[in-house]
Design a protein that fits this description.
Keywords: Membrane, Transmembrane, Transmembrane helix. The chain is mainly alpha-helical. It contains 14 helices and no strands.
Length: 322
Amino acid sequence: MSTRSISTMWTLMRRELWESPGAFKWAPITILGLTLFFIVFGLILGSRFDNEMAFTLDAIRQFADVPTDQKRLFVTGALFAVSGLFFQILLLVLLFYLSSCLYDERKDRSILFWKSLPVSDTMTVASKVLTACLLAPAIYLVIVVITQLIVLLIATVYGFMAGINPFTAFWLPASLPKLWSVMALGLLIQGLWLLPVYAWLVFCSSWAPRVPILVAVAVPAVISLLQHAWSLLSSFSMPELNVGLIILKRLGSGILPSNIGWRVESSGNNIDLADVEFSEELFMSFSNSLEYLARPEMWVGIGIALALLAGSIWFRRRATDT
């Protein structure tokens, strides 16, 4: 790709941010504000029941004395928990954004203006997908980093009040560079893993006459119901491959930190909490995310996504009205 093409792509992606400031700018900032509000509210409420914060400060002192590996597990787990709501909202934002990204320009007829510019339909569709896979996650990750730093600063204040060293108790166990690198890698893998879902939404947005998000949900839902009905009528059993369940499973396993696997050792078919190996690697392992690249369903999904995006480009090239 030439420098001019990269510049054009970046301009198109910036256009997406400009057209959807609520989804890509104000939504994560709002989540940051709500997260900090509830944290501060919880601390204030707790102080009302904890006379002079004696119990809280004593708990912090005890935490400072636990083994280092347990500190790392607790701190990284807490920071991942802080990020969970951001990434769940990000997925919802992307689902609605992609389902309307091509439909809206057909609806308000702004497509006539955009098609008059020297930008190909391929570049336009690619810019929307790259915005969903790269730019939007990067923005949310930056806000997550800011939120985590503020949380650590609050913990630092309480650490000083408890008379401990906050650096060794909170900051060092957090392993922030590695934590943020794992999260960034996880978001990149998430973009690839969910690419067929994203491409399906863009495809529906390129041709659906009305409410593309409803069309995107209704089509696989109807196919899934027909599969169930046919299996029950023909063999009175559940279908081996169900479209709806495949999509739901892909969505469920593709959201950070859900796409970070747990190492489980079990001698039988039943797995309980005791089988889970708890360590900092539970959250801080690059291999757990990279493992997705070795799955055949990853590459099958990417192939399906490319086909759907090709269809989206074809429909946009011929789009004139809703």
